[in-house]
Amino acid sequence: MLIKLKSSALNGLDGSIVEVEVDSYKGLPGQSIVGLPDTSVRESRDRVKFAIINSGFDFPPGYFTINLAPGDIRKEGPLYDLPIAVGILSSSEQIKSDLFDETVLLGELSLNGDVRPIAGVLPICISAKKSGIKKIIVSKENADEAALVSGLDIFAVNSLKETIDLLNGNSTLAPHKIDLLKFFNTSPDFDFDFSEVKGQQHAKRAIEIAAAGGHNILMIGPPGSGKTMLAKRIPSIMPPLTIDEALEVTKLYSVTGLLNEKNSLITKRPFRTPHHTTSNIGIIGGGRIPRPGEVSLAHHGILFLDEFPEFERDVLEVMRQPLEDGKVTISRAMATITFPAEFMLVATMNPCPCGNFMDKVNPCVCPPYKIQKYWSKLSRPLLDRIDLHIEVPRLKKDDLFTLPNGDNSKIIRDRVQKARKVQELRFKNTNIHSNSRMLPKMMREYCRLETEAEEILKSAIYHLKLSGRSYDRVLKVARTIADLDDSEIIKAGHIAEAAQYRSLDAKGADLSV
Amino acid sequence: MGKESFQIGITGEIIAVEYLTQKGLSVIDRNFHSQQGEIDIIAKDGDIIVFVEVKYYSFRSYGSPLGSVRKSKRQSIIHAAQTFLYKKNLRQINCRFDVISIYRDSGGKTNIDYIKDAFYVN
Asked: Which residues form the AAA+ ATPase domain (chain A) (predicted)?
């Protein structure tokens, strides 16, 4: 008997409905799966067979053909185990159900018949809802994630047996519900606090500006001056994710398979810290069927690159496009997929390979050509895209005892949030969230300067040899500083502060030649 | 094949036929040969035609009996089964491949492992 069920396939961040057709004829026993399955889908027939037998059902005799339609989309992953098993049992009339038209089945089976979690449940459920699906059957571990999509009945099953009882109408299983607000009402809790960092007021101020406007920041300083310490505390001053942002980020984590039962919605801004040996594919995303890379996993969050020049030059250069556009398009033979990548880049570096260049206490031992080589890793176009360059000098030995701790994270976060509110109002009804992503026409509208500010900007362009792009960046940073200052118009002081964070435009050029 | 091992094979098949009959299967053919393979026992289990491969060891051997039914052996059994169905003009009928392993342990006792639905085409 021909059985038709529904499941889903993932294409980047979008799901699409896949119809699973199962039919059999009498003859030598066997199974074949058609419809562009990859190896993990083909393997499902062995899992399905044992799952059926070990759940106490008969594996029906005959030759089964399983068709995954439409036949021109590649199917990958073990998520078809559950629909295939249910299809085989239905075609031998061990399941009788009229729910197949409105239900999507997703799940990997273990040999003993347990339903295991799969990746990409959230995007699948979002697209299933759009195509008029009413019910989703998933594993317990995936249930919270699926229930993030409202308007669907989510049934969380532990095993094939439970699924069959549910479909046969012998089960009292109620749809799984979660309270979305519950995820957001918990007060933020961070391991680190800014009050733990002594001194470095200049750096803290720059970081506050970066967080307030989503600007990229590069910290330069000798080893042990507190760069990494500062960077690790940035999440504690970032504003919390909105529900829409959280869903966007969760989708990316879902397709990468990084969600689990306890952590089914990402509510904290991502803080990604890839090691400097990471490949360019690891950073940007890729693979035979493209997967998100670090830039996308840091979407709406922070990408922290410690020891910036230690990264391969290729790796640094591939980030140029996402830094500018906030998204990456990855083309492979199998698929072309665009992943969002609106991240805030936080990078640290030493001023030279030994780390002590320009340090007053410890002399630098690097020969000039080594310093030049070190700096030449960072191209001008890349530095242009980093809004704020700050120096984090080593503290004097007494400073560690005498300097005040400064504001704690909560106080800074409140200021940041206030500035973000202003931006939210400014960019409402657009898909822009922060000053750093402003489009040119918005800059003309929102970055109005005082006359005096204009003069300062002109001289900064001349003296700092600013490129067109870094000029834009200065304006955006100045806009954020003005927002922190609660000022409608950009004043001279704001421009002056913004321009001083471009120190590397002039000095960096000198260092590298 | 030496006369001795042929004799041993025959003994194994006799035990297997006895065992299957006990289980309620009716044997319809034995030692069916096609060009590329052979089937030890063909039986009917209700509506289903069962092709049985008999593995007989006169001593305890290692591993599962299925382990010694390797891919090439399975292919030859499948080929013979197809020939059988074609020759007898049997269509639209469910089939199954079983393996039965028989061995004598050190005490001289006969042990039988019967594996239903042991493998399938492709």
From this structure: 213-396
